[in-house]
Specification:
Helix content: under 10%
Radius of gyration: 18 Å
Shape: globular
Structural class: mainly beta
Order of helices and strands: HHEEEEEEEEEEEEEEE
Largest sheet: 12 strands, antiparallel, barrel
Number of helices: 2
Number of domains: 1
Distance between the termini: 38 Å
Number of strands: 15
Strand content: over 45%
Amino acid sequence: MKILLTLVCILAAAGVRAEPPQEAAEAKDWKFSSSVNYDTGKYGTPDRTNSLYIPFTLKRYYSEAGLSVTVPYLRQSSSGQVTWVGGKPVHVGMGKGAAVPSSATSSESGLGDIMLRGTYALMRDEPGSFDLGLAGKLKLPTADENKGLGTGKADAGAGLEFAKEVSPGWTLLADGYYTVIGDPSGVDLNNQLSLDAGFYRTLSGNMGLTVLFETQNSIVDGNADPRSVGGTLSYSAQDGLEFSGGLTLGLSDGSPDVGLSAGFSRKF
């Protein structure tokens, strides 16, 4: 069973929702994307943590699947109580700043954890049907755990992505993922179940709006479960270019208070 799970994770090898499975067949073979993501919050601690996350993603499309690799740059200003786990800040209390008093805030930056991700179309949307895709991810522990930029351990997960057009211009979205979280020395982290639900709305011209509610169980006992709601506005330009901007609002102490993002992608 462990071997099967590992193979699924590597084959299917985050956080924005993956594209609907049918887009892979219509798109060009490659896609490059990047974005600037700013998050700020206290995550259940007395002090505020500000994070800047800039991922660079290259994706390869196949007729029924897609594979991608993400290499991120990360900068974080905190008192050492917050660590990045799976692309999100979590109150763990690792890193060299863990022993620093809460009033002492420092900034750390560097390479984040590299992410491998993939999807496979199990079902395509046809009249009376829906999209269903198998997705998975493998996080490589490339971030410096001593700076609080990662745990120093690999994570692996798999899940399902659902999309259904309910009327012209409206598509319902729902995803579910389960991730096995690697435990650093002296820290016991819970595995994580993530669920999100929302919709995609086609607007006038080449614009679209995606709205998602996301909830997860906390990977640290005693912490609040992360919950948030976010919206992303996208604009498709010529020559395979797309621009996007997003806003996320935290609904619990386990999530950032506010998150802002701006990005672009190019298919070729």
